[in-house]
Request: fold
Amino acid sequence: MATTKAEPGSSQRFEKDTREKIVSVVRHAILLTWSFVVLFPLYWLASMSLKPPGQANTLPPDWVFLPTVYNYLQLFQRSKFVTAFGNSLIMVAASVVLVLLIGVPAAYVLSRYDIPMERDVLVWILSSRMLPPIAVVLPFFFIFRNLNLFDTRIGMVLMYVSINLSLVVWVMKAFFDGIPVTLEEAARVDGATRFQGFRKVVLPAAKPGIYSVAIISFIFAWIELLFGLVLTNSKAVPVTLYVYSFIGSRSIEWSMLAAASMAMIIPVAVFLILVNKYLAAGLSFGVVLKE
Amino acid sequence: MSTPTQTQSETRTKPEGKIARVRRLWNDHLPIWFIAPMATVMVLITFFPGAYDLYLSLIKEPTLNVFAADFVGLSNFSTAFSRGGALHSLIITITVVVSALILESVLGFVLAALVAGVGSGRVKSFYRVLFIIPMAVAPVSLATIGRIMLNSEVGIIPYVINSATPFTAPAFLSKMPLLTVILMDTWNWTPFMFIIFYAGLSSVPDTLVEASRVDGAPLWRRYVHVIIPYMKPVVFVATLIRMIDLFRTFGVVYGLTQGGPGTATQLVSINIYEQMFVNNQVTVAAAIAVVYLIMVVALCNIVIAKVGFDGVWD
Amino acid sequence: TRGGTGSDDSANTDSKSDGGADIPLKKYQQADIDWKQFEDSKINIGAVQHPWVDAIKPAVPIFEKLTGIDVVWNILPENQFRTKRQTDASTGAGQFDVFFMDQVVNQYRHEGWLQPLDPYFDDSSLYDESWYHPGDMFDASKWQAHGGGYSDKWTGLPITVEVQTQFYRTDLYEKHGLTVAETLDQFRQNAKTIHEAESDIAGTVGRGQKGYGMNIYILNTFLREFGTSLWTDFPNNSGLDTDGTIDAAKWYVNLLKDYGPQDASTQTWSDVLTTMQEGRAGHIVADANLFWPDLTGSDSKVGDKIGIAKAPKPADGQFSPNAYNWQISTSKNAKNSKQGFLFMLWATSKPTNTWMHLNNDAAFSVRQSVWKNDEFRSRVGEDFAQITLDSLKAAKPDPFDRKYPQWGQQYSEELQRAIAGQKSAEAAMKKAATVAENIYSG
Amino acid sequence: MARITIDDVTKRFGGDNNSVVAVDDVSLEIDDGEFVVFVGPSGSGKSTLMRMVAGLETQTEGDITIGDTVVNQFGPRARDIAMVFQNYALYPNMTVQENMSFGLKMSTNMSASEIERNVTSTAEMMGIANLLDNKPGELSGGQQQRVALGRAIVRDPNVFLMDEPLSNLDAKLRTEMRTEINRLQNDLGVTTLYVTHDQTEAMTMGDRLVVLNYGELQQVGTPLECFYRPANRFVAGFIGSPSMNFFAGTARGGTLQCDGFGYDLSERMQESVGSYGDLELGIRPEDVALHDEAVDRNSFEVVIDVVEPMGSISYVYCRVADQESEDTFVVEVGGQRPISEEQTLYAHIPPEDVHLFDGATGETLHQRKLDSDIGTSAAGQSQNAGASSGTL
Amino acid sequence: MARITIDDVTKRFGGDNNSVVAVDDVSLEIDDGEFVVFVGPSGSGKSTLMRMVAGLETQTEGDITIGDTVVNQFGPRARDIAMVFQNYALYPNMTVQENMSFGLKMSTNMSASEIERNVTSTAEMMGIANLLDNKPGELSGGQQQRVALGRAIVRDPNVFLMDEPLSNLDAKLRTEMRTEINRLQNDLGVTTLYVTHDQTEAMTMGDRLVVLNYGELQQVGTPLECFYRPANRFVAGFIGSPSMNFFAGTARGGTLQCDGFGYDLSERMQESVGSYGDLELGIRPEDVALHDEAVDRNSFEVVIDVVEPMGSISYVYCRVADQESEDTFVVEVGGQRPISEEQTLYAHIPPEDVHLFDGATGETLHQRKLDSDIGTSAAGQSQNAGASSGTL
Ligand SMILES: Nc1ncnc2c1ncn2[C@@H]1O[C@H](COP(=O)(O)OP(=O)(O)OP(=O)(O)O)[C@@H](O)[C@H]1O
Ligand SMILES: Nc1ncnc2c1ncn2[C@@H]1O[C@H](COP(=O)(O)OP(=O)(O)OP(=O)(O)O)[C@@H](O)[C@H]1O
Ligand SMILES: [Mg+2]
Ligand SMILES: [Mg+2]
Reply:
C-alpha cells in the first residue's frame, strides 16, 4: 500500500491541477474575448472622443495618440448640453423613483393576494410593452397637448414610467414571491400595520430586486429617444436628443458625438458599480434564492 | 356564531379621529391603494393608444372626429399587405427576433455560466459590470458610430479585419445587412440576457449540480437536463421580455440601415415609421400596428401556454 | 434667442456665435414695412440641422431688435425634424410658426397643412416689393417655392439652393495625367484609372443610400441629361422605365459597383464626405456644391487638393444639373403666421443674405447677386462661385408632386437595391415605375 | 398575561364546495401563565389553530377570547401577542438591536432610550448582548433562534406563540434551547402556546399537551396523562417513542385472540371491556419483557428481527413466531444484554401495563395500572386539567 | 462493490496563508460491503471527507482508492458512486421516473427498456411505484427521501455516499427510513459511507463509527466500542444521549478531589491512572444512582434542579450540594419515580461504571467494566475492526 503512494500520487495531483488550470485558462480566454468584443467599440468611442476633431476617422488608426479633453471641454461649455444632461438625469431619476413607487406596491399585491385572472393581468401588463413606440407616439402627443404635459419634465417622467412599469411589475412580483410571508406576519404580530410591515420589513428585504430593476429601468429611460423627440420642444429635452444634434444633415461632428456618447455612459456605469452586488440576486425571477 | 369579516381591522375599535380613520381606510384596503396607480397607468398606456390605432386603422382619412370619420372596413389592412410591405416586414422582423433572441440567449447564458464559475469575487464583479455596459450606449450613438466603424472605406472594423486577419472584410451594411443588424443588436443587448441569466444561475442549488455530477452527467448534459430546467422561470421571463423588446426594435436598425438596402432590413417598426412619416399613410401604419400587436400578443400567449407559467410562479 | 434643441449655442461656429452680426438696422428700416407691429410676441422656428441655421443665427438678434419678436429655435437632424414636423402638422398642433420645407411641400399643401404666402405678399404693411427684390432670386428657386411648379402661390420662401457639381482630387488627376471629365464616359474612365492604380483609394464615391433626398437626387440629373424626365405624363407615366432613365441608372449603378466603395449602396452624405475627407476616394460622382466647404475645410486631410467642375453629361446629352432648394413655410395652424412671414422676409432679404454669405461661411445663396459679389467670390474661390453660378443657371430642379415622398422613397429603394447588387438596374427602374404609377392609380 | 379561550372554533380553507377543514370545532381554555404544547401529525391543524389565535388567519366559525376581549375582529396588531416562527423570520435588513426594538417601536409609545434599555437587558438575559450590531445573516442558527426568542420576550406580551421554533436546530442546540425556553417561561409566567412534533419537547416543555389529529382535538392533559392515560389509540400511538405496540384481536371468553398468540384478559380488563368484540391491545416497548423461556400463559414465542443497540438500552424488533404477517413489535431491553438476530425468545406482556382500545373507534377501554397517582387523579379531569406542574 | 482506502488525506480550503484545514491527515480503510458512519460536531469535516470520496472536492494531499484504482484524478462521473443528499437534490423538473433513470442514462449504455425495468423494480422495492409519474414538488418529505434513495440504489454503484440523508425528516419518518436504509444496505451489500449527527442513527446504523473532530480522526470502531470504550474524552462526551457527565478533579492519595465531593479511586483505577494528577471522571447518566440516603463514601449530596419526565424515564438535573459553580449533571431515573425540584438526594457513582480521562489531553486512562466482551475484545482492534455486526 505504501509502496506506490508518493510518486504517482503527486504526479496525479499535478495532472489534476493542470486540468483545472486548463479549464480556468479556457474560461478566461472566452471571457476576455468577449471583453474585447465589448471593449473594442467602447475603446474606439473613447479614443474618438479624446482625439482632436478631424482625426477621429484616420486610417491607419493612431493607436497611440496624445489624448485631449478638448472635446469634453467643448461639450460641457455648451450650456444646452449641460442642461439636457441635467434634464435627463433629473427626469430619468424621477421616473425611476416614480415607477418604483407605482410598480413595486402593485407587484407586492400581485404576489401576495389572490388576484382574479392573475395570469391575464400579468400578460396585459406586459402588453404595454408590445407596441413599437412609433405606433403610440401620436396618441400620446394628443394626450400631452391636451393635458398640458407637452414639453414638460413631468410629462417625460410619466412617459418613462410607462416604458418601464411592466418590467418593474414583472421583476418585482417574482422577487416578492421569493420572500417568505412569515416575515410580514412577524411584523404584523410585532404590532406593525400591513403597510408598516410592507414598508419596514418587506421592502428592505426586496432591496436586491429593487436595485436591479432600478438600474434596468434607468437604462431603458436614459436611452429613450422617440418620446423625447416628439413630446418635447425645448424645456424638457433629454440628452439623447442632444446627442443627435451632432449628426448634421451635412456633416457629423464625430469627436463631439463620441464625447457626448461617452458622457452618457458615465452615469449608467456609476450606477452599475453602486448596485453591482445586488444584481446577482435581484433578477432571478422567483427562483428561490440560496442564502 | 359570528362570522368575522374577511378584512380584520388593524386596531381596536375606539372612537377615532379623522387621521385615524384615514389610516384605517388606508390599511384595511391596502391592496386596492397599492394596485390602483399601476392599474390606472396601465389602462392609460395600453387602452388609449391601442384604441386609437384600431380606430385609425378602420377609417379612410385620419380625423379625430369619430362622427365625421369615414369607416372603410378592412381596406387599410389590405393596403398594408398589398402595397405596404407588411408581410415582408413581418418576415424580416421575425427573422431578426428569432436569430437575435437565440444568439443573445445562448451567448448570454454561456457568458453567465462562465462568469458564475470565476473564483475571485473581484474578477467576477469586473466582468459583471463590464458586460452590462453596452446596454448603456444610446441607440443614436450606437447606430451612428457603428456605421462609421463598419464603413468599408474608413471604418476601423473592416480595417482591422483586413490588416490583422487573413480574411477580407465583407461589406457589412450592403452585402449582409440583416446579419449586421442582428450582430449589432447582439452586442447591444446580450448584456440584458447575461445579467438575468447570471442572477438565475447563482440561485441554482449546488447540491443539484453535484447530484448530477455524481449521476455521471457530462458538463453539457448537466446544463441541459438539470441547470436550465431549474432556471426555467428565469429563462422564460428573460426571453419573453427580450422577445417583446426585439419586436419593437427601431432606433439602432433605423440608424444603421434605414431598413435598407432596399427593404432588406425593414422591420415592422421601420415600416410603420415610413408609412406614417414618409408616406403620410397614417391609417395604413395604424393597420400594420394593429396586425402586429395582435400577432405579438398571440405569440406571447402561445409561448406562455406552451411553456406555461407552471414552474414559473406557483 | 433662446430655447430650441441642438447645438444652437456654439455648435459649428467658433467665435461668431454671440450676435456678432453688425448689419445696420437702417437697411431694413428703409423698407416700407411696419416691422414693429408685433412687438413682444414670439415665434417658434422648426429647423433642420443645416449650415443655413448656423449662418443666420448670429444675425437673429438684429431681427429681434428690429421687430421686438422673440425667436425660439427648434433644431433637429433631418430625419428627426421630419418626424416632428409631421406630428405637428398632422395633429394640427401648430407649434411651429416657421418651419423648413422640402420635398413634402405638395403633400403638405394637398393635406391642407400649408398656408400660401400670397395674402401676406399682398399685405402692404408686411411686404415691400421694391425693397425685397424677388427678381434677384434664381428662377429655379422661385419655381420650387411655388410647390415645385404645382402651385401658383408661394408655398414658402427659398433659403438655400444647392446644385449638382463634380469634385475631384487634383493631386491624383495630376499623378495619373487625367483630365476633368465632361462626359459620363470620361468620368467613368477617370474613376477606373484611379481605382485600379491606387490600392487604398476608391475610384469614386456617391450617395447610394435610399431616401427621397438621397441617391435619386443624383440619378434625376442624369435621367434628364439622357433626355427623359420624371412624369413624362403625370400621373399616368412616371418616366422611370424610359430608356433614358434605365441608361442613366445603369451608368450610375455600374459606376458605383465597379469603382465605388464596397458599401456604396448604404452611403449617405456624411459617409461620402468622410470618405473624401480621409482621402480615400478619387472623386465624387457628382453631388451638391455644398460639399465644398467641408471638403476644403480644416477637417479634411485633402483640403487643398480638391477641384470642382460642372457635372458630367452624356456625350450627346443636355447639361441640366439638379438643383434643390430648402424653403421656409408656415402652416395653417400656426398661431403667429404673420410674425413668421416677417421673419421669412427678413431672413431671405438681400441685406441678411449678403451678410451671411460675406461674413458667415454661407455658400448657398438663392440670390444671384451674391454669386456675382467679388468679396464673396474671393472668399469661396473663383472656381467654386463660377461653376456653381453656371450650374445654377442651367439647373432643372425636381418637381415634387404630392406623392413624391411615397413613390420617391420606393424609387430610391429600388435604386439602392440595384447598387447593392440585389437586382439589375433595369429591373429596378421598371419596378419603380410600376410602383409610382400604382400609387396614383390605386 | 392573559387567559385564552377558544370556543367552538372551526377553520375551512378554500371555496365552499372543495374546502379543507383545517381545524374542526375545537374548544379549549388556556389559563393565564400556562404553557400549552400543541402536538399532532403534519397537517393536523396545529399551525392553523395557533395562527388564528395570532390573528393571522380568521376563523370560519367560533370565537377566540384573549383576556376578557373577544378578539375575532382584531388584527394581530391589536392582540398584544408575540410569535416565534419556525424559520425565525428575522428581518434580514435590520441588526439584532433593530430586530428586537421593532415590535416596541411599533406597538408602544416607549421612548428610544427606554426601548434601548429593554432591548439591552433582554439581550443580556439571552446571551446575545455582544451580537446586537450584527445582521441576522451573520449569525449561526442557534444565535438566530435566540434573537427570535429575545425579540418576542422584549415585547412583554400577553401571549407567546411559538410554531416549531426549534425544528431548524441540530440535536444538541435543540436540547439547550429547550431547557432555556422552559426556564424563561417559568420566570416570565407568560401564557404560551407552543407547536411541535418533537416527542421530547412535547413531553418536557408544556404544562399541558393538546393533541390534534385531522383538525380535531384528541386529548388535552398533562404530558404524563397523555402518556399513561391516552384518551384513544391515536394518542397512545402518537405520544411516546418508540411508539406503543398494538395487537389487534378479538375478545372471546376472556381471551383476546391476536395474530399468533392469545392473551388472557384479567378480570379488571374484562370489566372495562364489557361486551366489545374487536379490540386492540396496547403495550409500550419498555413494558414488554423478553425471557428465554415462557413464564406464564401470557408469554409467547418471538423471533428477533433486528436489534438496535443505543448504548445503555437496545431496541429489539420481534416477530411473533406463529403469526401470519411480517409485522414486528419493539421491545426495549438493557443495552448490555446479548441478543442476536434470528434468535428465538419468549415475550411476556404484564397485565398491569396493558391498554385496551375499541378496535373500531380507537376509544380507550382499559388503562394500565399506575404506581403513583398521576393517572387516576388526573384522568378524570383530563379535559380541564389546570396548570399542574410537569414533575411528579 | 468496492473497498475504499483513504490514505493520509488532508484538505485545506482557502489561500495558502489563511487556509482552513477541513480534514487533517485522515487514514481509513473501509471494507467491501461495510456500512461506515461518520459522526462529529458541525464543521468537523464529515461532509468534506465524503465529498472527497465522491470526487466533488479534490484532496490537498493524500490518496483515495476505490476498489483497486487510485481515483485522485477522476471526477465523480468516473468513480461509479451514488450519493444521497441532505436536501434530496431531486431534479425538480423531472418526474420520479426520470429522476431515477437519469443516472443510468448518463453513466451506462443500458437500453431504454432495460432502464425502465430497473427503475420500476427499484421503485417497487422502495414502495414508490405509484409515484413514478409525479414531480418531486408533489411528494411529501418522506416520499422524496425514498425517491432520492431509489435514485441511488437503481444505479447499482460501487459505493453509496449519504450526507445526513434523514435530517430533514420528522422524527417518525426518520425512524422508519432509518430501519429501511439499514435493511437495504444489508440486502444490497454495497459499501456505504453515511454522515449524520443524530445519535440514534450513529448508534444503530453503521458497522463502524468514524468519529471526527476539527478534521481529525478521533476513533474508529463499532458503535458499542465507541460507546463503552471511548478513545478519549471527546468521543465519550459525543457518543451517547444525554452526554456522559464529567467531573474535573485532582487525584491525590487515591482520592479524586472534585468540586464539591471527593471520589475514592478503586485499585484498578489507580493502576490505570498511575501518576496523573489532573483527571476527569466520566459517568453516563444511566449509571448514576440517586438514593434517599448516602450508601457509601462515594455518595454525595445533590440538589435537584430540573426534572424532565420523558414517559418511561425521566432526566433529573442535579447540582452537587457543596460545589461552588452552578453546573448540573444529568441522571436518568425511572419514569414513575416521584422526584421533585429542589429536593435533596444522594448521588452514587458505581466504581465499575467510571471512566477516567487525562485532564490535559483528554486521552482515556481508565475504562469502565463490562459484563460482556464488547469492549475488551473490540478495543484492541479498534482501528481495524472488520465488518462486525452491529448486534452483540
Ligand atoms: N393557506 C392555506 N390554504 C389552504 N389550505 C391550508 C392553508 N394553510 C393550511 N392549510 C391546510 O390546513 C391543514 C392544516 O394545516 P396546518 O399548517 O395547520 O398543519 P400543521 O399541523 O401545522 O402541520 P405541520 O406539522 O406540517 O406544520 C392542512 O391540510 C393544510 O393543507
Ligand atoms: N468550500 C469551502 N470553502 C471553505 N471552507 C470550507 C468549505 N467547505 C467546508 N469548509 C470548512 O471546512 C470545515 C469542515 O466542513 P464540513 O462541511 O466538512 O463539516 P461537517 O462536518 O460536514 O459539518 P456539518 O455537520 O455542519 O455538515 C468547516 O470549517 C467549513 O467551514
Ligand atoms: Mg405547522
Ligand atoms: Mg456536512
